[in-house]
Amino acid sequence: MSGGHGRGLTRRALLTSSAAMAASLVAACTGRPPGEESSPTDAGRSADADNAGPARLRARPGTPDAPDRPVGLLPLGLGPERDGLLFVPARAEAGGPLPLVVMLHGAGGEARGGLAPFLDRADDAGLILLAPESRGRTWDVLLGGYGPDVAFVDRALEHTFRRYPVDADRIAVEGFSDGASYALGLGLGNGDLLRRIVAFSPGFVPRFTAVGRPSVFISHGTNDDVLPIDRCSRRIVPALRGRDYEVRYREFEGGHGVPAEIAEEALTAIVGG
Asked: What's the CA dihedral at 137, 139, 142, 143 to 10 degrees?
């Protein structure tokens, strides 16, 4: 990888506000298991999916109807202040369906930081990257419950689906830190849409009502002093596996960040299926 990926992504590159991160830790690393609202035996269900709780996303890919399909790094144009970015690879001009990754920044972050793990490789891999920004200092469920951020992610997805052909079988959600926790909550509650979840250094799993059975990739640094691994991923992973989710788990020697080789492995899992 080139650019930032050659060195891996450090805490400084991914966190823009340590104060905001500290505030979010009130809800993180509690040691509680994933907060599934339904029975574990319902994890693969599809009945009543449209009424599956406050984390439910409604947008679905279809036939694009927008006249223009620009490529490159683009603003979403959905909010006057907190908005987001969309990266569209050059091969989108050929018109075939492409994989899509929803990328969620950490606490105090913004869209450009959210794109960081995959942006250097997205054009070569033919990935559409969608990086919405949280409405507040971090994602809504960490501040009290699902709500405005779910609605904004839904708007951003609808905006993307209207403009570009997306492979419905290769839509993923990725996040780092607070964004990783949010990716787990959204992904597990929308597994019929978000088929893969990538969580880099998550703190916990928010409550969700299980829909579908997405595959999960989790990584965590053994020396993480922001979200300590023993209280976070080493509890999250066994809990998810105990509920029959397919989890690929990678520990690495390092702190609160995303090493290049970890980002590469996660990207390959998304593109290669």
From this structure: 50
* Pairing verdict, β 196-200 and 215-221: parallel
- Please name which of 96, 207, 80 lies closest in space to residue 88, comparing C-alpha atoms: 96
Parallel/antiparallel/unpaired status of strands 215-221 and 166-176: unpaired
Summarize pLDDT for 18-50 with one digit per residue, the tens: 333 333 333 445 444 445 443 332 333 333 455
Q: Identify whether the C-beta of residue 261 lies closer than 8 Å to the C-beta of residue 11.
A: no
Six-digit token pair at 139?
């994602």
Name every residue whose Cβ is closer than 8 Å to that of residue 134 and which is 6 or more positions away in sequence.
82, 105, 109, 140, 149
- For the beta sheet containing 98-104, the strands, ordered from the edge strand earlier in sequence to the opposite edge, are 72-75, 84-88, 128-132, 98-104, 166-176, 196-200, 215-221, 247-252
Taking the C-alpha atoms of residue 18 and residue 7, their distance in angstroms, rounded to an integer, is 21
Q: What is this structure's pTM?
A: 0.85
CA distance 129 to 86: 6
Q: What is the pLDDT of residue 66?
A: 82
Q: List Cβ neighbours of 217 (8 Å cut-off, separation of 6 or more).
A: 196, 197, 198, 199, 247, 248, 249, 250, 265, 266, 269
**What would the two tokens of residue 194 be?**
């978000």
Q: Look at the block and give the residue holding tokens 């709780």.
A: 53
Q: What is the pLDDT of residues 149-166, one digit of tens each?
A: 999 999 999 999 999 999
Per-residue model confidence as pLDDT tens digits over 89-122: 999 988 889 999 999 999 999 999 999 999 999 9
Tell me how far apart the alpha carbons of residues 214 and 247 are, in angstroms, rounded to a whole number: 9
